[in-house]
Amino acid sequence: MPLAKAASNVRENAYAPYSNFKVGAALRSASGAVYTGCNVENVAYPEGTCAEAGAIAAMIAAGDSIITEAYVIADSPTPVTPCGGCRQKLAEFGAGEVKVTMATTDGGELVMCLAELLPGAFSQDHMDNS
C-alpha cells in the first residue's frame, strides 16, 4: 500500500477531541511492511501522543526495527514536521538518508531526509568511548 494512502486512512482514526488536529503517519520498514499510527489526546495529556510514535510502536511490536521511508499527513496550511521527540525516535530506527514526506490534506508536500530533520541526532556512537 502506498504510504500516502495508509497515512491518510489512519489519520481519520486519530483521537483529537481537544485540538481537533488529526495527524496520520505511515512507515515502511526494511521488510517492506507498512505500519501506521495516529495521534491520541487525553485529559491528562491534551497534546497527546504523536502519530509517528504510534507507527514506530506498531513496527517494533511486529518485530521490525528499521525504517526505510516515512510519511506524515495533517490538515494544515503547510506540511507539519514531526515534533522533536518523534524526530529522535525516527532517527533511532532509520538512517540519515531515510526520506520523510510531510503532507497536507490538500496535496502539499515537503520531502526531507532524517539528517535534515534532525542534524546532529544523538546515537549509539555518542556513547562509545573507545
What this model shows, in words?
The protein is of the alpha+beta class and 130 residues long. The protein has a single domain, classed as Cytidine Deaminase, domain 2 (3-Layer(aba) Sandwich), CATH 3.40.140. The chain is built from four helices and five strands; from the N terminus they run H-E-E-H-E-H-E-E-H. The protein has helices spanning 3-11, 51-61, 84-93, 114-117, and strands at residues 23-29, 34-38, 67-74, 94-104, 109-113. Strands 2-1-3-4-5 form a five-stranded mixed sheet. Strand 3 (67-74), helix 3 (84-93) and strand 4 form a beta-alpha-beta unit. The longest helix has 11 residues, at 51-61. The chain is globular, with a radius of gyration of 14 Å. The relative contact order is 0.17. The model has no long low-confidence stretch (mean pLDDT 92).
Please provide a brief summary of the model:
The protein is α+β, with helices and mostly antiparallel strands and 130 residues long.
Structural descriptors:
alpha+beta, 28% strand, 5-stranded mixed beta sheet, Cytidine Deaminase, domain 2, 130 residues, 5 strands
Question: H/E order of the elements?
Answer: HEEHEHEEH
* pLDDT averaged residue by residue: 92
User: What is the number of beta strands?
Assistant: 5
Name of the CATH first level: Alpha Beta
Would you tell me the structural class of the helices and strands? Answer: alpha+beta
Overall 3D shape: globular
Total helix count? 4
- Strand content is 25-35%
Uncertain segments of ≥5 residues (pLDDT<50)?
none
CATH topology value: Cytidine Deaminase, domain 2
Name given to the CATH homologous superfamily:
Cytidine Deaminase, domain 2
The largest sheet, given as strand count, sense and whether it forms a barrel, is:
5 strands, mixed
N-C termini distance: 44 Å
State the share of residues found in helices, binned by percent.
25-40%
CATH architecture name:
3-Layer(aba) Sandwich
